[in-house]
Design goal:
The protein is an all-alpha fold. The chain contains six helices and no strands.
Length: 142
């Protein structure tokens, strides 16, 4: 009986072990889920009246609308470039932009609300940072 091969796959062997496909599929699933989250969050901020938004968040109404547009555009940037194969290098940039928004959300929650509420944007920001790095260095879209 042959000994099991426990050494890590080399660069050429990686795709034959299915590693590339697994990473790519995982990233696509994560990108899709993040896109749904940001489309929903941005869409709600765009639909709600400014008065309702400013009652919930201590930020100026036009700034909240700007954040909403950025969230929707970031969500589209997570999916469309890779799906349409047009400028796929925009995907990690969109994810990085969403990380910046989440850093701001963490700051707002820590400053104006309970610190425990900052965990949600913190986790979402970490996931977006993972997508940004992975689509930039680990498994870039072509």
């Amino acid at each position: 009986m042959a000994e099991p091969d426990f050494r890590p796959p080399t660069e050429g062997e990686y795709s034959s072990h299915g590693g590339d496909r697994f990473v790519n599929r995982t990233l696509w699933i994560l990108q899709f889920l993040l896109a749904l989250l940001f489309l929903f969050a941005g869409g709600v901020k765009l639909i709600l009246p400014i008065e309702a938004l400013t009652q919930q968040l201590p930020l100026p109404g036009p700034f909240l609308r700007f954040i909403a547009v950025c969230e929707v555009l970031g969500a589209l940037g997570l999916i469309l470039p890779g799906l349409l194969r047009i400028r796929p290098g925009l995907t990690p940039l969109a994810a990085a932009g969403l990380v910046i928004i989440m850093v701001g959300a963490v700051w707002v929650n820590v400053t104006y609300a309970e610190a425990i509420l900052a965990l949600i944007p913190l986790v979402v920001g970490i996931l977006a940072a993972f997508v940004a790095y992975s689509r930039w260095r680990v498994a870039p879209l072509h």
